[in-house]
């Protein structure tokens, strides 16, 4: 996915394993911030769409394997979708800064959830059990939330940040009951290993600036 430097129109393209461009498609007002390849071969794009009033709202677009648009849904939630995960029954978990939802194969919402006004979700991970693990910031404190596949909260915990927390860049489901998180602070980054059963940070390694 890229933005044309002349027209500023975002577009997506598919390349072969030897670097040949197979197809490209202009996305018009859709700006992709995340991408997911489904088991069916469909390509899911998450991001935001710019409306006539120049507002940005969460949006999802689905293409087939040849780049043909199958459908697009705009949701009445400001912001953008930065996380996409394939879940059961060909459904998709979508994650934004203040909002997460599960949508069906046509983009219709099965459930949705919001976080506190001052809280921002920065990253999420889909656990092997189907449970969902989120992390982000709330008034300068890091939080983690774990929910079951139907969005019932299993626990929520907050920690005092050891530095000025900027954002959690990524969460990756790791071995055993751990997720690894790459956390960006104002002056450095760190890797955290968080226990998904307790929500406690078990280990942290600071990375050089």
Structural overview:
With 209 residues, this protein is mainly β. It has no helices and 19 strands. The chain has strands spanning 2-3, 10-15, 21-26, 30-37, 43-50, 56-63, 69-78, 81-86, 92-96, 99-103, 109-114, 119-126, 132-138, 141-147, 153-160, 165-173, 178-185, 189-195, 201-207. The strands form 5 sheets. A 4-stranded antiparallel beta sheet has the order 4-5-6-7, with no helix packed on it. The chain is globular.
Keyphrases for this structure?
single chain, 209 residues, mainly beta, four-stranded antiparallel β-sheet, 19 strands, 0% helix
Whole-number average pLDDT?
Answer: 88
Would you count the extended β strands for me?
Answer: 19
Which secondary-structure class do the elements indicate? mainly beta
The largest sheet, given as strand count, sense and whether it forms a barrel, is: 4 strands, antiparallel
Any chance you could write out the topology, listing elements then pairs?
Layout: E1 2-3, E2 10-15, E3 21-26, E4 30-37, E5 43-50, E6 56-63, E7 69-78, E8 81-86, E9 92-96, E10 99-103, E11 109-114, E12 119-126, E13 132-138, E14 141-147, E15 153-160, E16 165-173, E17 178-185, E18 189-195, E19 201-207
Antiparallel strand pairs: 1-2, 2-3, 4-5, 5-6, 6-7, 8-9, 9-10, 10-11, 12-13, 13-14, 14-15, 16-17, 17-18, 18-19
């Amino acid at each position: 996915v890229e933005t044309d430097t002349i027209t500023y129109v975002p577009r997506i393209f598919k390349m072969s394993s030897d670097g040949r461009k197979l197809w490209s498609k202009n996305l018009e007002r859709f700006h992709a911030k995340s991408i997911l390849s489904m088991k069916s071969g469909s390509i899911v794009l998450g991001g935001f769409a710019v409306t006539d009033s120049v507002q940005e709202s969460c949006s999802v677009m689905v293409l087939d394997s040849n780049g043909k648009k199958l459908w697009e849904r705009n949701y009445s939630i400001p912001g953008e979708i930065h996380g996409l995960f394939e879940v059961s029954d060909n459904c998709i978990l979508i994650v934004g800064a203040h909002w997460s939802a599960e949508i069906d194969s046509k983009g219709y919402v099965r459930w949705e959830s919001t976080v506190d006004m001052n809280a921002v979700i920065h990253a999420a991970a889909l656990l092997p059990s189907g449970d969902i693990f989120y992390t982000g910031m709330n008034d300068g404190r890091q939080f983690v939330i774990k929910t079951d596949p139907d969005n019932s909260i299993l626990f929520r915990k907050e920690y005092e940040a050891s530095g000025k927390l900027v954002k959690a860049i990524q969460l990756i489901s790791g071995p055993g009951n751990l997720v690894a998180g790459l956390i960006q602070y104002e002056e450095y980054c760190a890797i955290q290993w968080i226990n998904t059963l307790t929500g406690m940070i078990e280990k942290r390694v600071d990375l050089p600036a």
